[in-house]
Each structure stands twice: as structure tokens, then as C-alpha cells.
């Protein structure tokens, strides 16, 4: 293989206590990355898809968040029990999981329903 | 804005001492990310390009490495003095810096000129 067919970045950022914006790691970001890595391997995608830890992805109010490249599909408020669906639907079959997608209007915005 | 126009992930991984594969952080990965972030801001791209820290990108023998999405251009053996060129050429003008690109044959391979 050469490039990854898909490269998933899961936010594992943790701010200092008392920070204004929330952090993904204490909301489960690290476990998500580990579960995604395991599920990718179990689906036989180990050589074509990488589940990667990332620093702050800057969509903090929607965490835990992840982004799938090259298609730039963002998922937010992801729970451990969503991981298998993301792998089966998106990473195996190329169908993003619409119910978990962050709206374009929620990305990189100072104000949205999740960031009043 | 909505999605980032470009999202650059710079490996900041650091393995335990004595690990078989090398690590990007002690080879300058963290400083690269910081310099890239500063240069992106100085170029007026702060709202459209994100310079992101990443965990291990698994191209360890070519470090420090970074990858630019959505185009999936990989750079290796990047030095601090290369950062401005990456910003000016690739991130501002959309022209990848060919001299710094990792060859397809170097990606995700158990053996290449850098990984004998």
C-alpha cells in the first residue's frame, strides 16, 4: 500500500482544570481512539485506514470529536457504542454516518446551538 | 467559515527510550508544529488552515513528518527552515513542495531506502 485510504483523527486533548472550553479526552476521546483502532483492525482495514490520536481539533464544544480524511467528514458527541457503526458504514462501505455528523454551521464558529 | 480548507497534522510522538523505531518529537516535531502554527497565522490563514499536533503517523523512519489534508501530501525529514516554504508555496498557493515530499514508495512500507 501507499497512502492511507482513510485517515481518522480522534481528538485526545486535555486542558488544564478550570479552562473555559471543554476537552475531548476526559469525555472519552482516548477510549474512542483505542476502540476505533481495534475495530479498524477487526474489520480487516489495518493496512488501509489509520485511527490516529490528535491534539486539539478546535471543535471543543462538540466533543468528543473526530474527523475522517480525505473526505473531511466531522463527527461530534461520539460515544463508544457509535464506533462500530462508523467503521461498518463509513470506513468499510464509504457511507458517512449522518446522525453523527457535525453540521457545517457548527464547524469553526464562535456561535452555534452547542456554543451559545 | 465552515471546514478547514487545509488541515496539517504534524507528528509529535515520543517513544520510550530504547524503542526500535525512531520518534518525531525528539527530532523537532513539536517545534515544527509551533513554527507552522505561527507561520500560518502570519500568512493570514488562521481561519482556513489548521496546524495540528498529531500522535504517531506511523512513518517514523522519515521523521519529522507531517501530512496535509485533504490532498494527502506527506512531507518528511522536515526542518524548521522548511516551514516558511511549505506555508508560502503549499498553504498559500496550493503548490506542494516537491523536494520535501515523501515518495509513495516510502509510505506505509516495511522497506524503503530510509527503512532498510
Write a concise keyword list for the protein shown above.
21% helix, iron (chains A, B), Glutaredoxin, iron-sulfur (chains A, B), alpha+beta, 2 helices, globular, homodimer, metal-binding (chains A, B), 4-stranded mixed beta sheet, 16% strand, (2Fe-2S) ferredoxin domain-containing protein (chains A, B)
Description:
- The structure is a homodimer of 116-residue chains.
- The first copy, chain A, has helices at residues 29-42, 83-92; strands at residues 6-11, 49-54, 66-69, 73-75.
- With 116 residues, the first copy, chain A, is α+β, with helices and mostly antiparallel strands.
- The first copy, chain A, has one domain: Glutaredoxin, CATH 3.40.30.
- Chain A has a 4-stranded mixed sheet with strand order 2-1-3-4, with helices on one face.
- The longest helix of chain A is centred in the first third of the chain and has 14 residues, at 29-42.
In short, what is this structure?
Two copies of one chain form a homodimer. Chain A is an alpha+beta fold and 116 residues long.
Arithmetic mean pLDDT of chain A: 95
Give me the CATH superfamily of chain A.
Glutaredoxin
How many H/I helices of chain A? 2
The order of strands across the largest sheet of chain A is 2-1-3-4
Helix content of chain A: 10-25%
Low-pLDDT residue intervals, each spanning 5 or more residues of chain A: none
The greatest interface between two protein chains, and residues involved on each side, is:
A-B, 26 and 27 residues
Instruction: Tell me the domain tally of chain A.
Output: 1
Based on DSSP secondary structure assignment, what is the total number of beta strands of chain A? Answer: 4
**What is the N-to-C succession of helices and strands of chain A?**
EHEEEH
Structural class of chain A: alpha+beta
Cα Rg of chain A: 14 Å
Keywords (chains A, B): Iron, Iron-sulfur, Metal-binding
InterPro entries (chains A, B): Thioredoxin-like_sf
GO molecular function, one term (chains A, B): iron-sulfur cluster binding
Protein name (chains A, B): (2Fe-2S) ferredoxin domain-containing protein
Amino acid at each position: 500500500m501507499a497512502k492511507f485510504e482513510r485517515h481518522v483523527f480522534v481528538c485526545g486533548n486535555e486542558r488544564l482544570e478550570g479552562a473555559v472550553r471543554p476537552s475531548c479526552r476526559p469525555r472519552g476521546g482516548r477510549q474512542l481512539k483505542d476502540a476505533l483502532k481495534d475495530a479498524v483492525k477487526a474489520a480487516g482495514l489495518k493496512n488501509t485506514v489509520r485511527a490516529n490520536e490528535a491534539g486539539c481539533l478546535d471543535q471543543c464544544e462538540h466533543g468528543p470529536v473526530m474527523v475522517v480524511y480525505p473526505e473531511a467528514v466531522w463527527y461530534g458527541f461520539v460515544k463508544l457504542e457509535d464506533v462500530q457503526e462508523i467503521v461498518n458504514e463509513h470506513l468499510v462501505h464509504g457511507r458517512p454516518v449522518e446522525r453523527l455528523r457535525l453540521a457545517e454551521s457548527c464547524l469553526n464558529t464562535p456561535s452555534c446551538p452547542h456554543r451559545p
